[in-house]
Amino acid sequence: MAHLDIPQTTSTPLISFDCEAKTLRISGESYPENSFAFYAPVLAWLKQYLLDNRQLTIAITITYMNSSSTKCMLDLLDIMEEAYGRSVNVSIIWHYDLENPRSFELAEEFCEEVSFPFEITALNK
Amino acid sequence: MDLYNLRKQFDESGMMMCFNGPFSHSIIEEIGTALRNHLAAENIAKAAVLDVFAVYIELAQNVRNYLALRELGHGDTAASIITIARWNEGYMVSSGNMVLQEDAALLCARVNEINAMTPEELKRSYKEQMRREVQPGALGAGLGLLEIARHSSAPMNCSVRTIDETYVFFSLSAFV
Asked: Is this structure's pTM higher than 0.90?
């Protein structure tokens, strides 16, 4: 399985897989020059990983996402949902800053799209 | 060149930031960062800063994607304007760029259609569009104007100036 480790930039999030914790971390902001090109390798990795493995948590701390990134995020959720349908143990933990209600609202809208465990939790309680 | 009059006009219209020229992705990033630092210094809520930033990003990326799609991103048609100005208690973010005649009418119709939507209709329409298949080679997901409307506190405003038989100059303003 190819390693997935994309460093953070101003307009793209860190995307890094922790093999031991079976956790994919996505954190930062997302407004790439071309969202589809940026997320294509991530979606390909995820698809393959969920065919070869039975467990994955995605831990997301995204403060801002542009509209084309939300479309890519929906594609990511669809891949997870499909795996969940094959009884793969998938879940999302979405962390948001209490001072940033937009990140919470975004998480809520994504949560409405899936049936697998999706936890939304404040960073600074 | 005496820039005093230009500056005076900016001050009188509440202009905070203005960029005129060809946009690159790194320019969009840089102006965005400057805009956020500027707004953070005004002591407004974090959510409000992000709303202005979100509208700015969608407008700027819409312009850039449109010019790339129509292959207008070089030469005389490349230069575009983006401005951020004070407006009532909030902010006005505007973009201006060259648009093909036939696209301008469609764009205005789409803006008016979105302006007429209630928040619930906007949310539904956003989700429907998000579910739509993206055309191969597309740079955006067709969500930009809906996203802008969802962050806006007043209807968007567009205006069109004819340049010649092929082009118009298209201005679009959003209010946060």
From this structure: yes
